[in-house]
Sequence to fold (236 residues):
Amino acid sequence: MKNIFSPDSLLIKALTLLCDLMFLNLLFLICSVPIFTIGASTTALYAVLFKRLRGKDLKIGKTYFAEFKANFKQATLFWIPYFLIVAFLVADIYISHNILPEEYRFMQYPVSIALFILLWATVLVFPQMALFKSPTRQIIKNSAILGLVNFPIIGMVFVIHIFIFLLADLSAKAEMIVISILLFFGIAGLAWFFCIFYRRIFMKVLEKDAPEEKESAETGELLDGEKDPDDDLPII
Fold:
């Protein structure tokens, strides 16, 4: 019985993780209220979760705000135009499907494909910003390439999001349950689950680059063979 309540027991570890996710979820929601800060709050969320997965002993709140501040400029400069483009494409699809006459609804398909490609190519942007000190252009390029190379993982991410959307669309009750879970701990919980796979993707790149020192084409600085995930991600 004593082992169950030991700090190293599975139960206590699970409860600690749940509490951390609930706190992170709250921080994320609060910091995302202005909308234009969602990029920085998402990057900070991933940064804390990556550190936790690496077994670092950290203070969730202090670390989150430190990462939010450190990544604010880069994440926001990417997020604002990205959000506007996505909003424009979504609005175009909505208008084509719901407002235009039926004979013009075919116009939604090329826009839908463009939106899908954009989302797929940028899935790994904020996780990269959370882990690596790289120029935004390099991060976007790496995200697109890694998204193609790791098709099963990124596909899983899309399938899970689609499943959640379809589940919420079943009924008003189902929608309320899904929203409640997401607001309680679900956003941070999903991010934590995805971080497990994202970290594997990045570690493969680092292990591939580890045997020799490579020069960064963007900065001209040598990247150490033994890399820490907080270092610059090499151009792929």
In short: The radius of gyration is 20 Å. The chain has a mean pLDDT of 86.
